[in-house]
């Protein structure tokens, strides 16, 4: 079966600036595919190309079998799109927003009532259909926006930072809806800045400086990071601790993580001893020093820093 999204050596330049630099990947049908990267990495430009809003400078991209360069209108009819701003009209009721988007997306009139009922049920807003959209909380707006984006039953759905600004409970509920859509056969392409959300994706691609620097299942990518060892260090003075240990032999990387430090080392026992000795010499108290499993954030930081070391 043909993938839902196929990208081959995609390039997008703006003058001399290369925003997307020979990017290649494929997204299978029904897959939840995470697209991650720091600001300016090229994520948004890539998504705009895949949505038929920008023409690529070079390379090829297919969405649901349609060429984004040659068939942009057909591409837009086969996708749903939702951004962090939700694209809803606050001065319309919930039901009026749904009615508006059924027209925008060209939902056939005989199907509009059924699609409206589906969205209201999916979003849990059936009893509030007459409420003004502007009065909804961020989490409820989010669910309504997702429902409006799939009114026309698109096979591919692009979600651009859809959980930005909503509380953790609403974020978790939203991901339950994403899984339901995936199970129903929709392909979901999602960008996020929340590293814990990357764990929810079937696969992720990490972009940096216009290129994909990592691609695979979250667990597989994290296991690659285990070629080194990770220590959690909590001390009475984290910044001074960083200065004290970052030049020690066997210390590969030191990163601030919450109120403590994550220290990447080549040998747990030898490095732990060096850390204790270095901090004792500066009269810094150690509250916790122990091996931990790497998180997606650790993976993200390690990969980005590795790229920066290649291109200082």
What strand line-up does the widest sheet have?
Answer: 6-7-8-3-9-10
Q: In terms of structural class, how would the helical and strand content be classed?
A: alpha/beta
Largest β sheet strand count, sense and barrel closure: 6 strands, mixed
Quickly count the helices.
Answer: 11
- Approximate strand percentage: 25-35%
Query: N- to C-terminal separation?
Result: 42 Å
- CATH homologous superfamily title of the largest domain: P-loop containing nucleotide triphosphate hydrolases
Low-confidence blocks of residues: none
> In the CATH hierarchy, what is the class of the largest domain?
Alpha Beta
- Domain module count: 2
Helix content: 25-40%
Overall mean pLDDT stands at 91
Please provide the ordered H/E string of secondary-structure elements.
EEEHEEHEHHHEHEHEEHEHEEHEH
Task: Give Rg in angstroms.
Answer: 23 Å
**Do you know the CATH architecture of the largest domain?**
3-Layer(aba) Sandwich
Give an overview in words:
By secondary structure, the protein is an alpha/beta fold. It has 11 helices and 14 strands. Helix 3 (94-104) crosses helix 4, helix 3 packs parallel to helix 5 and helix 5 runs parallel beside helix 6 (168-183). The mean pLDDT is 91. Helix content is 38%, strand content 28%. It has 2 domains: 5-221, P-loop containing nucleotide triphosphate hydrolases (Rossmann fold); 227-293, Alpha-Beta Plaits, CATH 3.30.70.100. It starts with a strand and ends with a helix. The strands form 3 sheets. The protein has a 6-stranded mixed β-sheet with strand order 6-7-8-3-9-10, with helices on both faces. Strands 2-1-4-5 form a 4-stranded antiparallel β-sheet.
């Amino acid at each position: 079966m043909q993938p839902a999204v196929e990208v081959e050596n995609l390039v997008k330049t703006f003058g001399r600036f290369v925003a997307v630099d020979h990017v290649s990947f494929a997204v299978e049908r029904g897959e939840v595919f995470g697209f991650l990267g720091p600001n300016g990495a090229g994520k948004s430009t890539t998504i705009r190309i895949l949505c038929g809003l920008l023409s690529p400078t070079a390379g090829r991209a297919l969405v649901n079998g349609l060429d984004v360069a040659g068939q942009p209108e057909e591409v837009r009819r086969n996708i749903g799109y939702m951004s962090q701003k939700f694209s809803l009209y606050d001065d319309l009721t919930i039901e009026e927003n749904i009615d508006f988007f059924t027209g925008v997306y060209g939902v056939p009139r005989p199907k509009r009532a059924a699609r409206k009922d589906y969205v209201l049920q999916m979003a849990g807003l059936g009893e509030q259909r007459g409420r003004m959209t502007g009065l909804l909380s961020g989490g409820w707006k989010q669910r309504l926006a997702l429902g409006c984006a799939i009114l026309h039953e698109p096979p591919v759905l692009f979600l651009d930072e859809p959980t930005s600004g909503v509380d953790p409970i609403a974020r978790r509920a939203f991901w339950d809806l994403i899984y339901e859509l995936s199970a129903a056969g929709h392909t979901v392409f999602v960008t996020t800045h929340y590293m814990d959300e990357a764990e929810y994706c079937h696969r992720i691609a990490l972009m940096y400086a216009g290129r994909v620097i990592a691609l695979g299942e979250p667990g597989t990518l994290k296991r690659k990071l285990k070629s080194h060892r990770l220590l959690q260090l909590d001390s009475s003075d984290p910044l001074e601790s960083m200065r004290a240990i970052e030049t020690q032999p066997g210390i590969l990387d030191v990163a601030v993580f919450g109120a403590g430090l994550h220290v990447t080392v080549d040998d747990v026992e030898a490095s732990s001893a060096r850390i204790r000795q270095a901090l004792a010499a500066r009269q810094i108290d150690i509250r916790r020093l122990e091996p931990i499993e790497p998180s997606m954030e650790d993976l993200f930081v390690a990969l980005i820093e590795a790229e920066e070391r290649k291109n200082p």
